[in-house]
Automatic annotation (TrEMBL):
Domain DUF397: 21-73
InterPro entries documented for this protein: DUF397
Protein name (Swiss-Prot/TrEMBL): DUF397 domain-containing protein
Length: 84
């Protein structure tokens, strides 16, 4: 049943109206304003990632998935940040 709940959350994230969303990108993004990954929080559901150019391509993440990924990057987990 947990898998069904997760799938419903991910589908809800993809279906959410993000026309008024506040997208945030890293302060370390490249020199181009279109050279970045952006994220927005969807209250009660999780997060959505998108590329700044291909904005229609979105990746939904539950709150726990997003937090786990961020913690891995912060900890320097091998493979999450190749060649760094």
């Amino acid at each position: 049943m947990a898998d069904e709940t997760k799938m419903n959350t991910l589908k809800a994230l993809l279906a959410a109206d993000l026309s008024e969303a506040r997208w945030t990108k890293s302060d370390f993004s490249g020199g181009s304003p279109n050279d970045c990954l952006e994220v927005t929080a969807v209250e009660g559901l999780g997060y959505v990632l998108r590329h700044s150019v291909l904005t229609e391509h979105r990746i939904p993440l539950t709150t726990s998935e997003y937090e786990a990924y961020v913690k891995g990057v912060q900890a320097g987990q091998p493979g999450l940040m190749p060649n760094l």
